[in-house]
Amino acid sequence: MKQFISVHDLEGGLAGALQEAFEIKKDRFQYSHLGKNKTLLMVFFNSSLRTRLSTQKAGMNLGMNVIVLDVNQGAWRLETERGVIMDGDKTEHLLEAIPVMGCYCDLIGVRSFARFESKEDDYREVVINQFIQYSGRPVFSMEAATRHPLQSFADLITIEEYKRRPRPKVVLTWAPHPKVLPQAVANSFAEWMNETDYDFVITHPPGYELAPEFVGKAQVEYDQQKAFEGADFIYAKNWSAYTDPNYGKVLHADRSWTVDEGKMLLTDNAYFMHCLPVRRNMIVTDGVIESAQSIVIPEAANREISAQVVIKRLLEGL
Ligand code: AN0
Ligand code: CP
To answer: Is 3-147+303-316 a CATH 3.40.50.150 domain?
Structure first.
């Protein structure tokens, strides 16, 4: 594998990737020779807890040396636009910084969220594509502007572990949040679910429609309670508006969309999932996230496994 930006980069499809994930989960040190004398560079333009720790751990399980760079803490401020006269507060251009980073490593992971300055630039994945073009190294996404594939892969592993029937009903529900959040987690989850044969439903208030290329063949249901009926998995996430002219806006944070105990009773004893970090009593009540049906911690634990499958495949492709 040469890059990992979306589900479409997974050669051999989901079944093979899942099989590899479960094999690695049985003994996560069995490939510790693969990364010997290889360096993983993880570049963060945005904050992280899980991605930082799980991806670093995955690299170490494979025997790699790992370098973590927080661009906004200690590195020079980077200009990203070409053609700009750099007489402001940015000291270095991404077009030099990226190939320099490539000199010191074998693989590069990049976290670069949607910036909400331009919908077109966000959906063209301007930043991660520059890493692909100029670093000279295989690049993987640790959440880019439109997708978070390591998260979606971990979500899929988790659903496969907990599902009680071959074709579970999986519901992605919008939930309220006070700040502007990207669509990446929701887009990516939808993209991965569309690659399965699950019964997949997306529910959100009017105005929060996702891009059609990510919705795909999912059923969209505006009535959250109806969507929850008979569900096996409730996957909650907030995202800001995608559709024009409201791109990147919080239209409202209607707490009648918070996932609570009453709504969970409508489901078929569904498991509750969220990628974390989660704002309690906005996205989900204390009662639901602390319930026996909440699988947010095993879901986060599977981030180490999804990262390890991806890094292993990238190492094999060097
Ligand atoms: C980010 C997001 O919604 O994309 C990261 C989630 C993994 N969440 C926040 O910024 C709170
Ligand atoms: N789920 C996830 O990616 O968490 P972090 O933002 O903490 O990495």
So the answer is: no
